Amino acid sequence: MPSFRYPSAGELRAILVAVQLPEMEDADVRRSLSELENLLGSLGIGVADRIVQRRIQPSRVTYVGEGKLQELARLTGGTGELPRGPKTNLESLRTDLLVVADDELTPGQRRNLRAALGVEVIDRTEVILRVFESRPQSHASRLELELARLEYELPRIRDEHVDDDREGGGGRASRGHSNVELAKQRIRDRIAYLRKEIARVHAVQDRSRRARSDQIRVALVGYTNAGKSSLMRRLTGREVFVEDRLFATLGTTVGQLSPPTVPPILVADTVGFIHRLPHQLVASFRSTLEEAKEASLLLHVVDVSDPAFRAQIRVTEEVLAEIGAGEIPTWLLLNKADRLDANAREAIAREFSEALLVSALDPRDVETIHRRLREHFARNFVEETIILPYARRGLLAEFADRLQIVREEYGESVAVTVRASEQVIAMLRARLTR
Q1: Per residue, what are the HEC states of the chain?
Q2: Using 50, 70 and 90 to split pLDDT, how confident is the model at 247?
Q3: Is 70 exceeded by the pLDDT of residue 130?
């Protein structure tokens, strides 16, 4: 972990810095910086200023150009000069101000900015990692977050150690290994362990998903803070953590639609998406979103009260396509409609005529979703008559929670008419042949 430690909440202010490339619209930059500001706010860090520079590409040395670097130095009280050596004295940095880049910085860019500005400098990836680390975590997400953190820190380890300090223990020409080399090797060893442990956890999760493969599954997907967990609680009655903040929960929670149906409908609440997710966390999202890939139906939950909700819809659709879930049937749920006035509701209802305009806080809207889910899956059921010997009639008990019994007729055997998915009926017939 970095040597720098944040002051307590409320004492630290941040200056946001972004480079606007030619293909980027002004609105895109404003939206990204607003999201970054919200992320920092969830860490208790306020924003003092925003600095944006238009460039063909970021400076490889200082991220921003020389002019903007001097402007930033005037705001931070730094010298504006680049370091003369490879090290930055972290003890001399201001502790009440922070510069945050809306991109992922290279180790060299971060080191140079620190020295020139005289304040701690972090990037968007670091902010998102810290937000994730501050949230409740499952065992799997703890492992994945630690792996993401170590993969992010590994190329930056030089800045946190004394480069010319040596320790014994071999090495070329009997010089021994440097602290940096030893620290990097410890991180690599830990990364190797975490990858093996994550693979083991994923194997357990895969077996659990396969065990539910014949069941009806619905997955809630969408941007972070769209209200998925609130909707999950009201659809299933399950006590899941709900709070109005970014990434309030990590990982996946699965519950049964309540009041229960026959066959049961399972609902999974997945982790929320975000614009420009750090690549270190993409693998974590992929594993968490496997539940979405296996779903029969996706409920794409959107915070319709957010001015950027259209862009958030696009981000979610892009991520779903990237993980191979883009072809799964999807309902668009425009949530938090209770925050809109009548004119806004009417305009959005016209624009998104196929969507459901709802509020997870309104019991009537939740009942509408519940009813439409029941009707949707009932349309996919088939009705068949199964002939059972009396000695095998107990077989129905094994499938009691996965099919509906329409009628039973008794003669030399039992003719049972059932309604269920084709997969469940096929499984029942296969059991009869054993």
Answers
A1: CCCCCCCCCCCCEEEEEEEECCCCCHHHHHHHHHHHHHHHHHCCCEEEEEEEEECCCCECCCECCHHHHHHHHHHHCCCCCCCCCCCCCHHHCEEEEEEEECCCCCHHHHHHHHHHHCEEEEEHHHHHHHHHHCCCCCHHHHHHHHHHHHHHHHHHHHHHCCCCCEECCCCHHHCCEEHHHHHHHHHHHHHHHHHHHHHHHHHHHHHHHHHCCCCEEEEEEEECCCCHHHHHHHHHCCCCCCCCCCCCCCCCEEEECCCCCCCCEEEEECCCECCCCCHHHHHHHHHHCHHHHCCCEEEEEEECCCCCHHHHHHHHHHHHHHCCCCCCCEEEEEECHHHCCHHHHHHHHHHCCCCEECCCCCHHHHHHHHHHHHHHHHCCCEEEEEEECHHHCCHHHHCCCCCEEEEEEECCCEEEEEEECHHHHHHHHHHHCC
A2: low
A3: yes
